[in-house]
Amino acid sequence: MLIGELAARTGVPTRLLRYYEEQGLLEPSRLPNGYRSYDDGLIERVTQIRGLIDAGVPTRIIREILPCLDDPTTFHVFDSSPELVASLREYHDQLDARVRCLARNRDALATYLAAVHPH
DNA sequence: CTTCTGACA
DNA sequence: TGTCAGTA
């Protein structure tokens, strides 16, 4: 599929799809006319990338773990540099902190709702 | 009409 | 990230 279709199906702007390619996160093939051609399976990958970016993981880190995203079991087999592991632990902790904060506010709102609209 | 590259905010 | 330019 062309970049426009992938953008429509993933919700990721064409501008970003080209940017992710520039960052080494995607490598679509090219049609005779120079247009980028994306594999159907890349829809998942784009979703994967978006999720990581939304989680605060920089494209540089995503690029390093991307080769293993398809098969996590091969992760440590290939690359497990101490630096990368340390970075991942850092982002994991940051994410964990955000999750806790969200859960806390969710519960606070639930309590408020229960008070104003008891059942 | 869609995509491409490069550039600027 | 958004958007504009000038093409193919």
TrEMBL record:
Entry keyword annotation includes Disulfide bond: no
A Pfam family annotated for this UniProt entry: MerR_1
Keywords: DNA-binding
CDD domains from the UniProt entry: HTH_MerR-like_sg3
Domain HTH merR-type, residue spans: 1-68
Designated name of the protein: MerR family transcriptional regulator
Source species: Tenggerimyces flavus
Lineage: Bacteria, Bacillati, Actinomycetota, Actinomycetes, Propionibacteriales
